[in-house]
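Progress narrative, Year 2. Work on Ribulose-5-phosphate 4-epimerase/Fuculose-1-phosphate aldolase from Enhydrobacter aerosaccus advanced from sequence curation to structure prediction during this period.
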Amino acid sequence: MAVHALKTSKVAHLRDEVSPEEWQARIDLAACYRLMDLYGMSDMAANHVSVRVPGEPDAFLINAYGMLYDEITASSLIKIDHEGNILAKPEFGAGLDYGINRAGFVIHSAIHRARPEVACVIHTHTWPGMAVSTLACGLLANTQTSMRFAHISYHDFNGVVLDLGEQESLVRNLGTNNAMILRNHGLLTTGATVAEAFNAIHRLELSCKTQLAAMACNTPLVDVPADVVEATYLNYQPQTRRPFGVMEWPALLRKLDRIDPSFRD
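Result:
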């Protein structure tokens, strides 16, 4: 823990420079980055989690490109607008001048702009997610957990997402869904809160792991009748249950506080 404190202590503290609502969003987003790393869903300094700034519909927070997920703090996040302009960033110290990753901006800004009800977007390059993204069958709805994503969206691979022209197809393919498989690339989830988006990526990741494990057994898989899959899918939808993440998010924050509370800095 002492080593971690040394890594993050040089980032200027922003708590007194932002609204209480933005500060809470920063804490939740920093916590999400730490949890992504804790649960094995980080990719060194690559990939991104973003959250809309409360009260600023055209601005969102994203990680500084070059920091590892387990280094990220509430103050280290960078605020940008939908055009990629940096609105606010801290002094990182030690001659560092981190910016943002263009691919992250292209993907996240497209969704934040088009889906005002979405507060948080998570994109990963995990081995299970990437593996399933290469399968012609896609994600199979053959476990209770994966049936939550029975109508998951798909977006075909067109190279590294650097072209603003791809934003339209990203948004169109996502539709009103809260999860999408980027073929030959990785996974993406959204949520009305950070907690909701994290819950979705955790369950989607688990669904991919389970499918790969079952397929590796080289034995026929048990098919579930389509009507049962659909009924199970509907049980996971917003109109039938409380929002995902509500129950476990406070506990996850307590878990992080026990491990290393510096995400709150």
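Residues 30 and 73 are 5 Å apart (CA to CA). The first strand starts at residue 48 and ends at 53.
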